[in-house]
Amino acid sequence: MLENIYREEKIMNNQDGTKYVPFEERTGNTSIVYFTRDLSPEGIEKVYDRVKAYIKGKVAIKLHTGEPNGPNIIPATWVKKVMEDEFPEGNATIVETNTFYKGGRYETADHLETLKVNGWTFAPVDIMDSEGTTNLPVEGGKWFKEMNVGASMPNYDSLFVLTHFKGHGMGGFGGSNKNIGIGCASGRIGKAWIHEKNGNMWGVVEEELMEKIAESTKATIDYFGKNVTYVNVLRNMSVSCDCEGTGAEPVTTPNVGVLASTDIVAIDSASVDIAYALAADNYKDLKERIESRHGLRQLSYMHELGMGNTKYILIDIDNDDAVICAKKAVEGVKPFVIR
Question: What is the pTM of this model?
Fold first, then answer.
C-alpha cells in the first residue's frame, strides 16, 4: 500500500525531463483531445470546430510563420483556407513576435520581408512587439512573477494556437507550449529572460528551460482565460524547430494527423504519446531529441502549475467519435516521403 502511494507521488511529481511516463501510469483528471488523420485545411477545420466554442471577438492566431523558405511550416495556403472558412468576417489576425537570435525575423523590417517570402500575405499579421512590450503576471511561478510580451497582445479577445508539432533544438519538442511560451514572449526582453544566464545568451537549458517556457505560456493563457484553444498539426516532424529554416534536419518521423483540445497539457501530451506510439525506427530520432534535451519536463511542469491534465480521452472523429489510444491513432501510417 505504502509502496503504491510512493510510486504515485513519484509519478505525479516527475521532474526528470528525460523520463517518459506511460499513459496508464498517469493520475489525475482527464481532458478531451480530438484527432483526425486528415492532414489538410479541412482536417484542421474539422477538429477546430470541436474546440472553438469560446473563440470570439477579435481573434489572434498564433502560429510559427517560419524563417525564409522553411520547408516544414504549416503551409500558408492551408491557413488561408482555414481563415476564410472559419473567420469570414475578417476578425482574425496572425500574430508573431521578433526573434531573440539574429536571422530573418530579428528586426521588424526583415520579419515583414520573411512573411512575404513564406506566403503570409493573405491576412493581417501583427508582429506584437514591433511597437513595444507589456508585462503579464505569472501566477504561481518559481522563476518569474511576470512575463514580457508584445504590447499589442491585450488588443485581442481570443487566442487560437495553431501549432506545427515537431522537435526542437533546445526544448526537445515544439508543441503548443513552445509556440506560446517562446512565440509570444517579446524578442529582446521576454525571450532574454527565458534563455540568458550568466552572460550566456543560451545559458538556460534542460529542466530550467522547460519550466521557464511553461511559466511564460501560463502568463498568456491566464490572460485569455477560457477564450483560448489549441490545434497541433503532426506533419513534417523534423527534430529541428522551424526557427532553423532551410537548415532543419531531414524529416524521419511519419506524418500522422491533427489534434485539437482546449487543454494545452493534454494536447501536447497526446502529441508526444502519438510520436512515442510509432514503430521504433519511425520515432527514434524525435525521441532522442526530446529526451536528450529533457523536453518531457514541459509536460510535468505545466501539470504542476495547474495548466491542464496529462491524462485525456482521445476522440477519433474519423470513426464516429470512437475513443482510441495513441497506438490506434498511428495504425497504418506510412514512412515519411519528401514530396
Answer: 0.95
